[in-house]
Every structure is written in structure tokens, then in C-alpha cells.
């Protein structure tokens, strides 16, 4: 189900609760909402649809990837980026890392670990900031 985009900074600034297997339907809604906004959006976190759970979805070089409980475990090569967000107006400066290693769980809640670089890494960092309640 396509959900409305949350623009309430009080909701967006809350740290997300860990996701559980009961939250898989939320990920499906999040993915459908991202696909609906694909012309102007490359990633979303659950709080962007008003759900305070640690779930992100994003364009992973042409296919969508869902992460439950993602966390960055390693980062290298910092840089400054300008980013926009469906939930916020305008663009903002954010410190990002060119290479990140992420640990997360897939839809079956099996742990995964992978290194991401470049644009994909930047998208993931933006969405994990949402999970942390960080408004850039």
C-alpha cells in the first residue's frame, strides 16, 4: 500500500525501534511507496511513512534492496554531500563516507554483511540517519 510521506520533524527525529519479523508488511508498504516516488526518490526509511521501525529500502544499482535493522560497522574516506529528502524541504549538507560496510537482516531475518561504495553508500547513510532520528 502506498503511504503518505511524513513531514513531521517530531516523528522524524525519533530514534527507530528495532524491526521484527512482524514488520515485514511495513517493508512491503515502504517499498511500494518508494516505487511510487521513484522519479524523485532513491531511498526511504520507515519513519518517512510514519512508522518508527528500523527498516530502509533503496535503489541498489537498479534493483531495490530492503534492510531490517541496518548498521554501519566500518566507514572510510569522508566527504561533504548536498542531499534532498521527500520528508524535508530544500537541500542540506551532510558528512558522508565513500565506502561503508553494513550489517543488516533480510526479509527472513538472516544476517547479511556487505561493503557499499559511491552513490549507493550515500543513499544508505541518508536512510540510516533517518533510523537514528538524525535530520540533516
Structure description:
The longest helix is centred in the last third of the chain and has 15 residues, at 118-132. This protein has helices at 9-12, 24-36, 118-132, and strands at 43-45, 55-60, 63-85, 88-105, 111-117. A five-stranded antiparallel beta sheet has the order 1-2-3-4-5. The mean pLDDT is 96. A hairpin with a 2-residue loop joins β2 (55-60) and β3. Helix content is 24%, strand content 42%. The chain starts with 8 loop residues before the first helix and ends with a helix. It is an alpha+beta fold and 136 residues long.
Order of SSEs: HHEEEEEH
Q: Reading side by side through the largest sheet, how are the strands ordered? A: 1-2-3-4-5
Mean pLDDT, nearest integer? 96
**What is Rg?**
14 Å
Approximate strand percentage: 35-45%
What gap, in angstroms, lies between the N and C termini?
A: 27 Å
What percent of residues adopt helix (DSSP H or I)? 10-25%
Poorly predicted residue ranges: none
Principal-axes shape call? globular
Number of contiguous helices: 3
Structural category is: alpha+beta
| Total beta strand runs | 5
The largest pleated sheet is described as: 5 strands, antiparallel
Q: Which oligomeric state applies?
A: single chain
